[in-house]
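Table S2 (continued). Query chain:
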Amino acid sequence: MIIRPQYMELLKTYRDVPLVKILTGIRRCGKSTILEMLRDDLLKSGVSTDHIINMRYTSENFDDGMTDKDMYKGIREQMMGNERYYLLLDEVQEIAGWEKAVSSLLEDTNTDIYVTGSNSKLMSSEISTYLTGRYISIPVYTLSFAEYWISKSKAVFHRENF
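Corresponding output:
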């Protein structure tokens, strides 16, 4: 995994701020990997595993006709009491009406919400209707030359030591 510190620092800045953090970008640019890094960082900072709800909506575990209500209920069933939960929702654009579910979760529960999705599908959705003023969009780009160089340098260094 290539660590992308600029995104992690940005996400730390917005941690526990009552906004939905929406990571958007082209396919294969690293959005899901950034969510994995966020999960690891939450665990390192003392958040217990059962208070991190990680849902990947491209999984075959979900029905094709899943609705926003199904999404909402599925997440709520994993929450106990009014304790703080961290929601990491990957590829939410696969669920019709996801904005409504996320908006309800933001209003009804003690959560810090992070979502990912592709630019084209998320931007054509109802974000402005359901989440106006309650989200921040974080564009994710493919690796910069510096990130690429660092990752390749580490790989070469690693091979030379064996």
